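Supplementary Methods, section 5.1.

A reviewer requested that the exact input to the structure prediction be made available. We therefore reproduce it here, unchanged from the version used in the analyses.
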Amino acid sequence: MAAKRNLAAALGRWSAEHRKTAVFGWLVLVVLVMTLGSSAGQVNLTEADYGTGDSGRAERILQDAGLTEPAGELVYVRSDGLTADSPRFTEAVADTADALEATGLVTRVRTPDTTKLVSADKHAVLITYDVKGDPDTAADRVQPVIDAVEKTDAAHTDVTLGQYGAATGLKAINDSLGEDFVRAEYTALPVSLGILLAVFGALVAALLPIALAVTACVGAIGLLALTSHVVPVDGMTNSMMFLMGLAVGVDYCLFYLRRQREEREAGRDNATALQIAAATSGHSVLISGVTVCVAMAGMFLSGLTVFEGFAIATIEVVVIAVLGSMTVLPALMAMLGDRIGAGRIPFLGRRRARRAATGTPRRDSVLLRGVLARPAVFALLAAAFLLALAAPALGMKTEKLGTDKLLPEDNPTVVVSQQIEKDFPGSPAPASVIVKSADIDSAEMKRAIADFQAKAVASGRTGKSIDVTVHAKENIAELSVPLAGNGSDATSKAALTTLRETLVPDTVGKVAGTTALVRGDLAFSVDYNDQLKKSIVPVFAFVLGVTFLLMLFSFRSPVIALTSILLNLLSVGAAYGVMTAVFQHGWGASVVGTEGIGAVESWMPLFVFVVLFGLSMDYHVFVVSRIREAYDRGATTRDAIAHGIRTTAGVVTSAGLIMVAVFAVFGTLEMQDFKQLGVGLAVAVLLDATLVRAVLLPSVMLLLGNANWAAPKFLRASRPATSGGPAAAPTAPERAAAGR
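The structure derived from this sequence is encoded token-by-token as follows.
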């Protein structure tokens, strides 16, 4: 090997020489960051933080004025045998209202006597109320209210009661996610450990990556709590970060450990093997980590705070995982020496041990021999298969999924929501016009509001009852406007457009010094989707451009950099196609315990693209580094490719299985968006670690031949080292495998 140094080699050498400092320094760092984070507490996103566009600006106007709207709730009362004017029905309604008031947690309880919310068939009514206090924490306080309604329901057998609203809907989501994520976290750990036991055949070697990945996640959780005071995060970011951190952390350690053991099996002493692993696999881990972080940084161009939080969380856990892999891991490996193979599992790893003892080279798999013999055929078949998987994505439809689609259809909250929608179409979620003026009580503003009410009703796009709430002290008025349609269909969207582009500008919007903005569920969804659409081009351009530059810097080859981009795009396209087929069209949806819902969650394509583009570079950098390493030692391009695929196939497959297993855990969650995320990531990683890296990559590189290494003179002159440690000739197994 070339006796050159790189940062990874230097860190590995320092850690091996200062073992106690590296290990105890790591533990102190993790404990310190976690303690500081716990003391500071985590700041979660508020309702206004999620918004964007005009609806987001309207939310912030209310928030800044201290007029945050309380969480609104509905109690649905229905009887198939009784009508709303029946004595027993009205008694049930009255008892429900009394029960709500008795909790002391609600305000503005209104019965159908005042709201006139009675279904067309007169067999159902709605009771409305607001949860007292901060709406962002209402879900944490609403349980006694739920209990009171359930108790009333049990006392009136002639009617059925159900609840739906901002607080109960969020509570249902939080309960589902909380239970599922706890189960997911506990499932991911033993699954990862089982795969590592199969890979290493030894308990100590298997436990080491798990321990480092978990401590990295713990440290990252503490760090996220600190940074959340600058950029608040979604409440479920910690759980997502844990699973992401576990996947990358274990992978990074796996790359490092397997290379060190490979060098030991080749006959090198422990110190030399560790130096080589640090300079090669450690260097690959560093490049991969930087690529993931840069790709995730593309989310800052999305314009959405929730994405910024996800980006920061992922970057933090990846940085800590890389730091641990390059410092504390080599220190522990130096401490343990060959004891890293302690706790050997019977029957596991025997073939590798016999091969190392006898000097027998690895045999090429049937697949690799086929690729080497007919690269054009295999490249065509692999590309055609990936393009076929990607084809459904051409018809992908995205939308911001509501509670009724996020949760399983048998969830009580979803059932009540669907019943309300059936009996009261469009009524639960009116739009709201927020008017902020220099003088909200002026005669001119009063005339404008009255003009708005008249024109809105005359347009036929809204309901006839438009409520006006004036906050004179804050100079703000809220106009509640029921939209035509069911609240989310084309009719409602057309009504929202009329409201924003005609009714508001022509009335209250004309008053000098006035800001008038529309908010509400539909307005939020439309603005959110519009922002995502606007951010796709800059985010994609940033990630593609920076990834190309990183690969160019790492391998000093424009061809390899461009190939990296194209192969990753095929993986992403296949993931999009599978998500569209399963979740939009319902093909095979029962396999993951769901059904086709006609759309993919609106934030999914952007998020999956960024995550996959970062993570897939783990395998790409690892494989291409081994190929380049062999080429630099004098192998022909064909022999270098064969060597790189041969020596990385096992570890890449194992690493891929761990990531697939961890991401598949997302697919077991009840929430529809996390099912989509889990299936998309698991399928893409599986294809990337097998078909792309084992078939398409070597096929394409074989077809390109020496063009892989073609580069301008200034790039060749500045090519960095990808190996390090003492100079070493190829071992006997390596020479035999290469045919030299």
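The radius of gyration is 30 Å. These observations are discussed further in the main text.
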